[in-house]
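User: Could you write out the 3D structure of this protein bound to heme C? I've included everything you need below.
Assistant: Certainly. Input first, then the structure.
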Amino acid sequence: MNLRHFPLLAALLAVGSALGADIESAKPVTAREAVGWKLFFDPILSRPKNFSCSSCHLPDKGWESGVALAKGAHGDLLPRHVPTVVNLDEAEFFFWDGRAESLEEQAKGPIANPIELDLKLDEAVARVSAEPHYRKAFAALGVKRISIDDIAGVIADFERRLVTGEAAFDRWLKGDRSALSEAQNRGRMTFFTTGQCALCHIGRNFTDGDFHNIGTATEDDKGRYAVTKDEAEMGMFKTPSLRNWKGREPFMHDGRFATLRDVIDFYSEPQDSGIGETEIDPLELGDDEKADLLAFMEALNGPWPDLKPFEAAWRKLVE
Ligand code: HEC
Ligand code: HEC
């Protein structure tokens, strides 16, 4: 379907954007989420005890790393760019190639990965079980013998709470027509109609949760194909969320673009790597159109999750 011909439909499909997020951030933090918070920031989950999930997913870098390719606990360069862990509450696939199908399954990956945290899963269980505060916290959850599924489970629960708050575009969707400037309104039309961004970046988090080939694959990284071995999925990557893009630079699975303007230039005059078939037609946007699109996309940024309630809930649990 080409949304260029269905501007109204495109706008309707975006409705409901952050309405859920507001409700989410108002909910009290559960004990499970608090334990997940503690583990996410705890270096005991890395073999040299120098690295935690948050060493690569830094809250002040949009829960990414701020560099094209980050390094693991032993200093090894990772093959792919660190994606964010916010706004994954509706995601059904994880990693750029979607090789994990739940946050629970995903969380075990970096712990055991020799170039990430490099800790055997049974060693992770032994270390967590040896800490009196974790024993006390898990006991409060009804867990007597901690397992790796308990550890991954609470981390996943914490991650599901990482949703960002109301952005200017959400206020516009709720009927506040003053929430967008004229330039942003022109950019909105580009995003949802002529620019066709919403063909893939749609829904509350501006992602269809699916895989697409936009011409960015390389001989070394053929994306989804590595998982499914399906020729039709050659060169495809998971559509990333565009909600709260600001602070998550650089962009793409290999961090090739330093700024959002670079990304817009790419969609305007795309360079196809020739791996699989790209779904992107050159948009050939003028400078003004690019500036308007960028202005609109500023309206997708809202407040980042507040971590204070997690810390408070953890203290209550172990004191
Ligand atoms: C050494 C850096 C590093 C550490 C430490 C790390 N990650 Fe990641 N994380 C990455 C990279 C790189 C990817 C993307 C890998 C890929 O797609 O192949 C990723 C992907 C993810 C994703 C998938 C996001 C998406 O959009 O699909 C989640 C969720 C995640 N990490 C959570 C965690 C958790 C939880 C921990 C701690 C247990 C952790 N990460 C530790 C680097 C790291
Ligand atoms: C055919 C589907 C499709 C269309 C159309 C599309 N995108 Fe994307 N977009 C993707 C995929 C897939 C990626 C990830 C590719 C990669 O990592 O190599 C992506 C990545 C991005 C990123 C990087 C986000 C990040 O977290 O790294 C931005 C920004 C972006 N797109 C904006 C846009 C804009 C603006 C438009 C319209 C001009 C657009 N996209 C049109 C599928 C699409």
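The chain has two domains: 3-20+165-298, 28-164+305-318.
User: Perfect, thank you.
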